[in-house]
Design goal:
alpha+beta, GMP Synthetase, Chain A, domain 3, 3 helices, 30% helix, globular
């Protein structure tokens, strides 16, 4: 048996459903569940929060991987990544810029903290690399009679 055959691949993806009223209910391919909230005073995640959460989680995990690659993981005690952004003032609706704040605690100088953050953001994090790129979208649309390519 080859080593590639031993690797388990985690299913990825999510499905959001909602009715004529209410908010989306999202289920991941692995059974994770989250209900979306959009009211300003409601506790919970809205779609932009999920985008920021994905980026912050990916960068935090990637910082730990970067510390390991640099041989300093044993000196790392804590990583926190806060992500926010600003919406573009014009159409189409989108985030114009992300604000990313790393807190990397451990026995490091500023240069090492910077290198950990750089590796995490520039090379390791799939989410940041995807956002910075221009991924292709394949869109299909289904009705009661089945799936159709978008625009047909």
């Amino acid at each position: 048996m080859s080593s590639a055959a031993k690797i388990k691949v985690r299913p990825t993806g999510a499905t959001a459903t909602l009715g004529r009223t209410g908010f989306p209910h999202v289920v991941s391919e692995t059974g994770g569940v989250i209900d979306i909230r959009t009211g300003a005073a409601e506790a919970g995640f809205n779609p932009l929060d999920l985008l920021y959460a994905s980026l912050s989680a990916c960068l935090a995990m990637s910082a730990r991987i970067a510390a390991s690659r640099l041989g300093v993981l044993d000196r790392l005690t804590h990583v926190s990544v806060r992500v926010s952004g600003s919406k573009a003032p014009d159409e189409p609706s989108r985030i114009a810029g992300f604000n990313v704040e790393f807190e990397i605690a451990g026995d490091f100088d500023e240069a090492m903290r910077g290198e950990i953050a750089r590796l995490a953001e520039d090379e390791i994090c799939t989410v940041s690399n995807t956002i910075k790129g221009q991924p292709d979208f394949t869109v299909t649309v289904a009705g009661a009679d089945g799936y159709h390519d978008a625009g047909t």
